[in-house]
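Write out the bound-state structure for adenosine-5'-triphosphate.
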Amino acid sequence: MKKLDIKALLKLTEYGKEVTVNGWVRTKRASKNVAFIAMNDGSTIKNIQVVVEMNPEFEKILANVHTGAALSVTGELAESVGSGQNVEVHAKKINVLGVADPDEYPLQPKKHSLEFLREKAHLRFRTNTFSAIARIRHAMIFAIHKYFNDNGFYNIHAPIITGSDAEGAGEMFQVTTLDLENMPKGEDGKVDFSDDFFGKAANLTVSGQLEAELAALALTKVYTFGPTFRAENSNTSRHLAEFWMIEPEVAFFDIHDDMDLAEDMLKYVIRYALDNCMDDLEFLSKRLQEEEKNKKQEDRSMELIEKLEFVLNDDFIRITYAEAIEILRNSKPNKKKKFQYLIEEWGADLQSEHERYLVEKHFKKPVILTDYPKSIKAFYMKQNEDGKTVRAMDVLFPQIGEIIGGSQREEDYDKLYTRIKEMDIPEESMWWYLETRKFGTVPHAGFGLGFERLILFLTGMGNIRDVIPFPRTPFNLEF
Ligand code: ATP
Ligand code: MN
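---
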């Protein structure tokens, strides 16, 4: 007999058929004559109810069965009235695969704080919240690949170890096989990397973009979806040291095409979640509402599913950075000095408080900002004719702030070369990138979508540490 997971078992209607349920006990309620065991195997948020008519043998077995125990139960599929599902299983044989001592098992059936569960990351998959998030993560990985595949994009694996630090100088993790106790030094007293594994300094990548550009300049429509690493010591609820990024890059695209792609893709994957993850979203929505009960009415966020629908229904607002600065400068929180960082003039780097003000209070819609000052953006962004701004575009979302950062890329060799020099980027590490601007250069554009920021938005969770199974953050490397 084929093994059926609980998701499949719950759909059966062949009452009387013998089935086997494998899973973990969520709760057990026992009386003298009958016991009810709610079992879950993570295939769905729903539990299946096992009904046990007590006899001396079952009584002995069930004495060892508590929340967290693993069971394999064989019995008869029956129509259910009280379990909340259509079916239940009437046990004939109970095999205890693994016990869980109630005095030791941390996940007893009561409410646990997210902070507590972070310390139990090895077990937290077994909660409704974290299994729902894991399933939504999976669905989004699938939806993203499907979106790009259906639209003629090719997936490219960018390298994880990189020899260039052009993008992330200062916030990169170094990779070395040198003996840290005894580093070879050159005459200038600096570490001599010629003896290191690669014969030069190596780092973990902060982005696959530069390599994606090389591929786009041959395959036209490409994307990467890989891990990226940033050693920025920002202990915020939106930053991880290791996170996953989706980076499409398209030849013959300008910044407007880039914005269209970003908006279309985000709407597609959100739609996909609504169409395919409703059970989990409904659970997370209830969880969120429960959590928000303690907040003041005006601080409560929109109901989760309503919020997702809301993003789908309208066009995103598209304005320039300069327009955003004017709005922010004249905003109430700026005038009343409520922002932590006050906006005084053009040139200011926007913080997430400003991004969220624009989205949540001013426009009440996702916003795409373009034409940022070149001084606060990366060297590869296409320079505008004004000499001050670049064709950057950031997508700002409610609750998150920046979810996407992108741009049209500078395709002019001389302008790119000058910018690299101005920004003190070592030319010898960039020769291959520059060379693409010598041979058949074309306008092109792309962006980076932070996968965990997308999952934050979709799940309504408040902290990025809770939407990746094993978060990597400063002073946190357990599991
Ligand atoms: P921020 O200003 O929020 O730190 P950034 O401008 O440094 O982000 P980009 O280099 O533009 O980010 O990266 C593209 C996307 O990757 C961002 O829009 C965001 O969604 C995501 N991202 C960036 N840094 C992190 C991080 N440390 N953890 C998780 N996601 C991140
Ligand atoms: Mn950015």
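---
The two ends are 36 Å apart (CA to CA).
The pocket of adenosine-5'-triphosphate (ligand 1) is lined by residues 230, 239-240, 243, 245, 402-405, 448, 450, 452-453 (CB under 6 Å).
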